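WP5 quarterly update. Target: Single-stranded DNA-binding protein. Source organism: Clostridium cavendishii DSM 21758. Length: 123 aa.
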Amino acid sequence: MNKVTLIGIVTKDLELKKSKASESIYTNFNLAIHSLRTKTKEEKTTFINIVAFGKQAEILCRYISKGSKLGVNGRLDVSSLIDEQGHKRYSTSVIVEEFQFLDNKKKISGESEIFTGDLTVPF
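Structure tokens (predicted):
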């Protein structure tokens, strides 16, 4: 089973991109996950790379911005590449299967409407 569930804060404004190979649209961003260390009571922040494709990417780019609280369900994906020095490098991301807006109120871009509540978008 490959299942990941995260709640965190978006660290930058999202940008819709188009893949060169398949011309599919996507967005990638970091989610800051805060956790508390049990022994020292220190808060630790981990930054997780998140990738969304297609309609999900469009919705996220339209309604999510830096500082938004977001819930993500997805799967882990590990990819590798060979760098310029010939070393193999690995990258781990969470591929979005569904997400949920967790902010209480979100202003819809340029309109006077206010989005309240949660919106879950499945894959």
